[in-house]
Amino acid sequence: MQTRHTPESIVIADTPAAILEWAARHIEHVGIYQGPHLFAGPGRTATLPCWPRGALQVAAGHGRGAAGRPYDWDRIDRARDKACTILAETLMGHPVDADDPAAAKAPHHEVIDRWSAEPGRTAADAARAFRAAAARAEHALF
User: Fold this and answer.
1) Angstrom distance (rounded) from CA 89 to CA 99
2) 61, 63, 126, 130: which has the fewest C-beta neighbours closer than 10 Å?
3) What are φ and ψ of residue 50, in 5° steps?
4) Distance between CA atoms of 37 and 55, rounded to whole angstroms?
5) In this predicted model, what pLDDT tens digit does every residue of 76-111 receive, in sequence order?
């Protein structure tokens, strides 16, 4: 099933590839933001520029869930975490090592944050990276 991206959609992607594609479309729609305090208030996640990790959060439902609609948040969160891992590894060109399995997300977040903070980084750059990672995710066995 193809992911339908619109900022107001209550459909939440639940696979790494779909989250990465949704994030690509989202960042193309709102633009890239390079700085702290990405989401400064409620109801703004769908319209404010965001950083790449923030786009993954929006794609995985942050600020978009509908009250009364059931979501499998465990599945969505696992898919988001895997999408983050695949994106970081795509950006690095190789697996990102984590010495402590309990802190495995931190190195991936750091890779993505450093990459997105590079001067001159554009929303188009981020969308290309998301789509390259989505293509890898499509072929990955989890």
Assistant:
1) 16
2) 63
3) -140, 165
4) 14
5) 999 999 999 999 999 988 877 666 555 556 788 888
> For 104, phi and psi rounded to 5 degrees?
-60, -30
pTM: 0.81
| Residue 50 three-state SS | strand
CA-to-CA distance for 114 and 56, rounded, in angstroms? 16
User: What length is written for the chain?
Assistant: 142
- Per-residue model confidence as pLDDT tens digits over 118-135: 899 999 999 999 999 999
What are 71's two structure tokens? Answer: 């979501």
pLDDT at res. 15:
94
What's phi and psi for 32, nearest 5 deg? -105, 145
Task: Give the Cβ contact number of residue 129 at 10 Å.
Answer: 22
Sign of CA dihedral 79, 82, 88, 89: negative
